[in-house]
Each structure stands twice: as C-alpha cells, then as structure tokens.
C-alpha cells in the first residue's frame, strides 16, 4: 500500500477506537489526592519518600548486627 492510502486509514482507525470521554460534572481533578494544605502535603510526601529510601539501609544495618552478634 502506498503511504498516501495508509495515512487516512490510520486516522479512521484511531477515531473508531478512541476512549469515550468522561461525563464529569463540575471541576475535574486529575490528581487522586488533595493537597490544599501544602505544609501537610509536603510533610506526608517527605515521610513517604524518606521511609522508602531508608528501608535498604535499615535492612543492611540489621543484617550487620546479626552477623556481628554471633561471633
């Protein structure tokens, strides 16, 4: 098939299988959480990120304590 024939076929196929639009009444919020209080939101995000980042270090410390205690 030539490129001139394939281009319109792709556009027709894209429009045929497009996702239906949502029937949202009022203001649409694309973020699944509320961050109206920025200080609380920042504290929650920092706590989440710090706890997730510290898990490997706590696990390594725990394993080091186990190995040094049995000798």
TrEMBL record:
Family membership noted in the UniProt record: Belongs to the cytochrome c oxidase VIIc family.
Keyword entries, A-Z: Membrane, Mitochondrion, Mitochondrion inner membrane, Transit peptide, Transmembrane, Transmembrane helix
Protein's name in the database: Cytochrome c oxidase subunit 8, mitochondrial
Record's subcellular location: Mitochondrion inner membrane
GO cellular component terms attached to this protein's record: mitochondrial inner membrane; respiratory chain complex IV
Subunit structure of this chain's protein: Component of the cytochrome c oxidase (complex IV, CIV), a multisubunit enzyme composed of a catalytic core of 3 subunits and several supernumerary subunits. The complex exists as a monomer or a dimer and forms supercomplexes (SCs) in the inner mitochondrial membrane with ubiquinol-cytochrome c oxidoreductase (cytochrome b-c1 complex, complex III, CIII).
Topology in the lipid bilayer: Single-pass membrane protein
Principal localisation: mitochondrion
């Amino acid at each position: 098939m030539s490129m001139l024939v394939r281009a319109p076929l792709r556009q027709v196929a894209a429009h045929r299988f497009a996702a239906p639009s949502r029937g949202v009444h009022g203001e649409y919020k694309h973020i699944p959480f509320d961050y109206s209080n920025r200080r609380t939101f920042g504290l929650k995000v920092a706590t989440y990120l710090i706890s997730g980042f510290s898990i490997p270090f706590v696990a390594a410390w725990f394993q080091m304590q186990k190995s040094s205690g049995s000798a």
